[in-house]
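User: quick one, sequence for these tokens?
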């Protein structure tokens, strides 16, 4: 899962929104390594069982890119958190990738992996699994080299601002595609804030472009070290409705029920959704 801090603590719209200000304050205690241990080391990080949550997410992404419909020059990963797995299939289809997160600690964590520095989180098991799923005969080392080469920048983002990347963004806009995993529902105090955040990131996407959205279902909290962070509980139909309201055609929406042995006490998540949505042409967002 990838999580992004929702806001600037002061001098922003959050000064007048107590709910979002509380979320912003809570995220100052977010610990990337604890989050990675909770979700990307075993048992959740065990990719040996095809019924696990990790293989399911990777399969959804790989199968969507295998359609050949989601491609272009530019891709923005909205709220990357400290994770890179969500881009392993994408990187073959986009030459200019922007990763984003509000929290500096998450951007630093991404930088360790991108620069191959000592102490970086080891994503090789995920890279190997994606290569296995895609069946192209590519080595996991080649996969990681390609991803590192195509990530051109790691930028701050604030999904609750009308211009999430700020004015004068270094990212080429509008993007041909967006990916966002476990961000919007984790930084929104309620459904209205979720909808508004989705509307904001949709402005980053060109008409006809694609959004791949992964998130939690019926989750109200999760842990990242000492931080206990609130999540807006959502059901599948609420996700679908939010996408339609923001001007998307929902191409695919599927869900995964979290099995008992993966309910490890680090959150109360009941399931995961994967949505493939295409921004309608001629719709003002």
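Assistant:
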């Amino acid at each position: 899962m990838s999580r992004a801090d929702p806001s600037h603590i002061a001098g922003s719209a959050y000064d007048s929104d107590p709910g979002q200000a509380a979320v912003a304050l809570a995220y100052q205690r977010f610990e990337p390594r604890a989050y990675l241990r909770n979700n990307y080391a075993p048992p959740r990080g065990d990719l040996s069982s095809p019924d696990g949550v990790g293989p399911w997410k990777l399969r959804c992404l790989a199968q969507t890119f295998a359609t050949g419909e989601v491609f272009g020059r530019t891709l923005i990963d909205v709220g990357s958190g400290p994770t890179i797995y969500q881009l392993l299939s994408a990187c073959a289809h986009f030459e200019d990738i922007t990763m984003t997160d509000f929290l500096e600690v998450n951007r630093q964590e991404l930088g360790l992996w991108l620069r191959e520095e000592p102490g970086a989180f080891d994503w090789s098991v995920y890279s190997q699994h994606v290569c296995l799923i895609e069946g192209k005969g590519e080595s996991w080392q080649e996969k990681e080299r390609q991803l590192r080469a195509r990530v051109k920048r790691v930028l701050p983002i604030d999904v609750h601002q009308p211009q999430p990347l700020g004015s004068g963004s270094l990212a080429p806009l509008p993007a041909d595609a967006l990916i966002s995993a476990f961000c919007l529902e984790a930084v929104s105090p309620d459904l209205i804030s979720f909808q508004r955040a989705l509307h904001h990131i949709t402005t980053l996407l060109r008409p006809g472009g694609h959004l791949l959205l992964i998130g939690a279902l019926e989750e109200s909290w999760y842990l990242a070290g000492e931080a206990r962070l609130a999540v807006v509980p959502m059901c599948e139909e609420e996700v679908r409705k939010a996408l339609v309201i923001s001007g998307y055609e929902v191409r695919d929406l599927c869900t995964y029920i979290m099995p008992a042995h993966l309910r490890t006490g680090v959150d109360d998540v009941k399931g995961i959704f994967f949505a493939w949505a295409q921004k309608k042409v001629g719709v003002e967002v």
